[in-house]
């Protein structure tokens, strides 16, 4: 019989599971404390559980859902890219990003992706499957264990392989586990879900009282319908006009600005005209958005090219002139985390490959 993984349960489900076994309710709190607060690597370390309970857990549940295959560390800024193998042999990636005041992890939510953005490597083989909640949570736990508690990971971005909102239920549960006081207890403001702009799912998330309120990033990448449709086929059904209408009408709190991600591709969406169009698209809603400019990172099998640094800076300057908050995510170790879908690129310049 296939073993269950307790990291697929939110706190309420964990409590119910504990009760169904005839154990007292506080056992759920103890188990959650060992898994998420102490971040132990085996049931034997859960010393305040009775031996019987530990044996039951060992026999009936699996501990880690992922196994480390390899990791690559950036020479430039210390980012670490991890490759994991799931129980069924599929591999996924996550990235640890050390920053001056905090550490971030970028997690994957699917093996492959069905969305089909043309600038993205992940989507080349289509969608293979959704990740389970435990597989999302284990990316956080195993990376935290790897980098040590002195490098606490406080920020999570759902920007790795896959469209998070296409794996709605498992991602929702992962966010519940991340923000629950009895579990990972991360701040909602430090979690960002990045979507390609599936309108029905964005609306669903905002209307769902059980989906903890976290930050939203949207992969925009073009300021006109024709260009967006060319690089993001999903835009045929989720049009740019509808996307902006939806984003402009979402409940807005100043501290929760929506991040508009814009991968700059030479000759496709990086002209001065594109920058002015983007500013016009944002219009009077400047306070609602931040723009994140990401120079395209070429990979094999693509004709797209990276624009030169000067035109990237010019693009930013035009947005600034409209008083739009715009940042550039330069290509160094750090940018692998943001380039949703490029994480699968086999060889990254400036990385040392270390096989385990
Ligand atoms: S960019 Fe993100 S949503 Fe688009 S194909 Fe890649 S993984 Fe999927």
TrEMBL record:
Belongs to the radical SAM superfamily. RlmN family. HAMAP family: RNA_methyltr_RlmN. Specifically methylates position 2 of adenine 2503 in 23S rRNA and position 2 of adenine 37 in tRNAs. The active site is at residues 93, 340. The gene is rlmN. GO terms for biological process: rRNA base methylation; tRNA methylation. Transmembrane segments: none annotated. The lineage of its organism: Bacteria, Pseudomonadati, Aquificota, Aquificia, Aquificales. GO terms for cellular component: cytoplasm. Its cofactor is [4Fe-4S] cluster. [4Fe-4S] cluster binds at residues 113, 117, 120. This is Probable dual-specificity RNA methyltransferase RlmN. Its main location: cytoplasm. Binds 1 [4Fe-4S] cluster. The cluster is coordinated with 3 cysteines and an exchangeable S-adenosyl-L-methionine. It catalyses: adenosine(2503) in 23S rRNA + 2 reduced [2Fe-2S]-[ferredoxin] + 2 S-adenosyl-L-methionine = 2-methyladenosine(2503) in 23S rRNA + 5'-deoxyadenosine + L-methionine + 2 oxidized [2Fe-2S]-[ferredoxin] + S-adenosyl-L-homocysteine; adenosine(37) in tRNA + 2 reduced [2Fe-2S]-[ferredoxin] + 2 S-adenosyl-L-methionine = 2-methyladenosine(37) in tRNA + 5'-deoxyadenosine + L-methionine + 2 oxidized [2Fe-2S]-[ferredoxin] + S-adenosyl-L-homocysteine. PANTHER family: 23S RRNA METHYLTRANSFERASE, RADICAL SAM CORE DOMAIN-CONTAINING PROTEIN. S-adenosyl-L-methionine binds at residues 162-163, 194, 219-221, 297. Coiled coil: none annotated.
């Amino acid at each position: 019989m296939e073993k269950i993984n307790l990291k697929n349960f939110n706190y309420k489900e964990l409590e119910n599971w504990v009760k169904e076994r005839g154990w007292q309710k506080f056992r759920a709190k103890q188990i959650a404390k060992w898994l998420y607060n102490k971040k132990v690597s085996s049931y034997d370390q859960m010393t305040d559980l009775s031996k019987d309970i530990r044996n039951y857990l060992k026999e009936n549940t699996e501990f880690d859902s992922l196994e480390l295959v390899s990791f690559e560390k950036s020479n430039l800024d210390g980012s670490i890219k991890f490759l994991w193998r799931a129980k069924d042999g599929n591999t996924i990636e996550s990235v640890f990003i050390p920053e001056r005041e905090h550490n971030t992890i970028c997690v994957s939510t699917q093996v492959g992706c069905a969305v089909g953005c043309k600038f993205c490597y992940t989507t080349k083989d289509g969608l293979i499957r959704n990740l389970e909640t435990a597989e999302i949570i284990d990316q956080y736990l195993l990376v935290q264990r790897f980098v040590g508690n002195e490098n606490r990971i406080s920020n999570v971005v759902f920007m790795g392989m896959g469209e998070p909102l296409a794996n709605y239920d498992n991602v929702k549960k992962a966010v519940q586990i991340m923000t629950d006081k009895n579990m990972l207890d991360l701040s909602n403001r430090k979690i960002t879900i990045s979507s390609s702009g599936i309108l029905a799912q964005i609306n669903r998330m905002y209307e769902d009282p059980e989906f903890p309120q976290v930050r939203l990033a949207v992969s925009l990448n073009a300021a006109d319908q024709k260009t967006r449709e060319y690089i993001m086929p999903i835009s045929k059904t989720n049009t740019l006009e509808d996307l902006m209408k939806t984003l402009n009408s979402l409940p807005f709190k100043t501290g929760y600005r929506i991040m508009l991600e814009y991968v700059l591709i030479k000759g496709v969406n990086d002209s001065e005209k594109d920058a002015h169009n983007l500013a016009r698209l944002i219009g009077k809603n400047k306070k609602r958005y931040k723009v994140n400019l990401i120079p395209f990172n070429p990979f094999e099998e693509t004709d797209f090219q990276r624009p030169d640094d000067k035109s990237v800076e010019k693009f930013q300057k035009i947005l600034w002139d409209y008083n739009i908050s715009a940042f550039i995510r330069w290509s160094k170790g750090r940018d692998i985390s943001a380039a949703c879908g490029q994480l699968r690129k086999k060889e990254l310049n400036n990385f040392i490959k270390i096989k385990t």
